[in-house]
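Recap from last week: sequence in, structure out.
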Amino acid sequence: MTVLLMLPEEILRHIFFLATSTTHAPHLSVFDTNHSNQYIRSLGLYTRRSLNQTSHLFRALSWEFLFNDVILKSTNAVEEFANLLSHVNEIGWWVQRLKITFPSQWASVHNPTHAKSLARIITLCPRLAVFEDALLTGSGNLSPIVLSALSFRDSLRAIGWTGQAYPSTNDVRILLERLPNLETMHLQGCNPSAHAPRSGLAPTPTSIRAPALKHLTLRLAEMRGADVFPLLVNATAPSLTHLILVGNVYFGGNIAAKTAALREFFDIHGPNLESLDIRDDECFEPVGPIVELLAKCTNLKEITYPVSCTSPLCDMEKVECVGLRGVVPDLLSPTHSIDNAQTALRYLDAHLDVLLSGGLPKLKTIQMMDSEVFGGYPELRRLSPHSQIYLAAFGARCAAVGVRVIDAAGTVIHF
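Predicted structure tokens:
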């Protein structure tokens, strides 16, 4: 400790940064909530809190790390943090990520005081880059005072709704229009604007510009507003290269209208996409015209999808990395049913035939996204002998054509 205290402050800050990192895989969306990311983030936040209790020097240097990533888990926490920022102005300078998560909503008619406090926090954090609304209940739109605070916070680079309280299409429009530097938007859901019809497609809106928008996440079942897709379809978004689609296009509203809008979205934005992540949504499988949509993505380099409920991919000339979800959980099912495991192997075989037969000539990597393989190896002891033999053959087959197999963190898997 004595030697450590003799180091220059710049070196100490760098050590603190590495020791308290809350980001595990930089290539993932800032709102990605997989188990390994949550675990790494919790460790980083715990270490940050501990730095403040180590020594006077560490306490003085730790503020920028302690307040860099703030999670508010109650309405009282919102009130208290707003008051703290008002009395100690320099704390707001260090806040770059803010997340709210508790059973409430921010509609001003319900919690005007809390909404004002949240707006005050946003205003007092001049370097705020990431705002995450993970409220556990609520269907109201954004409070006008919170919307105004967000729309004037030009330091924002990422906004996400990852809980059960969603913005309206008009909220989304205002934020995209007023935040030209916004790079990431995560929509777990979206409510219709007050003027929009609740069924059928809304009239085509005036095109908006989102010049910096690069990452977009859409949970299809909760796109409740008929005006959501027209807004996104007609948006001028030349930087949009990463898309995450969650859930089932054939669930939650007008099927024909949603499918037509999704096709139009891929007609316009598909050729620019470099990364596409298709995810299942609880019990709702990601069905839809997937192969048809993929044909529009002529510059795609990465694709991730759930194996057991998605058709094998079409040929794609530029894809270098394919991520597979649901492989290991299905193979672990012999603890319940051997038939399930054999079915999973047949699904996997059909996909591998496409992946390794030359239809993806630039394929270099297959990534297993399941948390069971985190750390570079699956839980082989729980697999049936038949599954173990199959995976060993699968690894050999990939190696024979020069394709690496890695886990979600990028660690090579040895079967």
